[in-house]
UniProtKB/TrEMBL annotation:
Residues 13-76 form the XdhC- CoxI domain. It holds the Pfam family XdhC_C. This is Xanthine dehydrogenase accessory factor. It comes from the Bacteria.
Amino acid sequence: MTTIAERARELTDNREPFVHATVVRAQDPTSARPGDAAVIRSDGSIEGFVGGVCAESSVRAAALDTMRDGTALLLRVLPDGAPPFPEAPGARVVVNPCHSGGAIEVFLRPMLPAPALRVVGSTPISAAVATLAAFLDFDVVAADDDAGCTAVVVAGLGKGEQEAIRAALDAGVGFIALVASDRRGAALLDELSLTDAERARVHTPAGLEIGARTPAEIALSIMGEVVRAIRVDGLAPASGTPAARPQQAVDPVCGMTVLVGPSTPHARVDGQDFWFCCAGCLASYTAA
């Protein structure tokens, strides 16, 4: 059987975001034990074991939250009526009314792929951009393929620029940096007959205005603009159709937040849909 560590390596190699969950502390009578682990994918599915169905629901919901900003989280799952436990930065406390007893602490570590960047051109500037991007832990794409790239830097200085821009736009790349003067860049984009939405994705002259002159300085200005787009503007990679985030609902019996999926206990009462954390809450609701 594939271990959680092997599965994590496989997802990492495939550049698929996931959360690695590890039970770090458990109090009887919970079924989880320290060292139990699981991976939670962006669609909310889970592989591995971090406790029973109620604890698992809390872990899955919190794991998806950590994927939004890539910040690790220590999740403490308490049974109903447990003594209060103070929250702190980097920690979250949830009270799980249907938890069988005891408490567990689960460390959630989001594993997000490094942003991929493709550099087009064989010039001193393109070489400097590739070197700096690698230093900044970008995945510098060598293949002639923009699929999955977060950004593309076109630094051909007159060679193959239009074709590179068109290919990046067609691949869904959200940030395309064209190294050119104001005048030449505007003329080149006019020849491409871009839509307003496409034109907004092409940045020329590339880079922040820092008075850059040398290839290394120009690379710094370009990568500064790319990093700002990712960290400030929320630039996402070109990934085709992203995995839809699962719908969330509140269990009307215990008040837990649950992820809605094919296996989530469900009932339709008086034309309204209700979802439950477990079969026990469903039975209690329908028996009332």
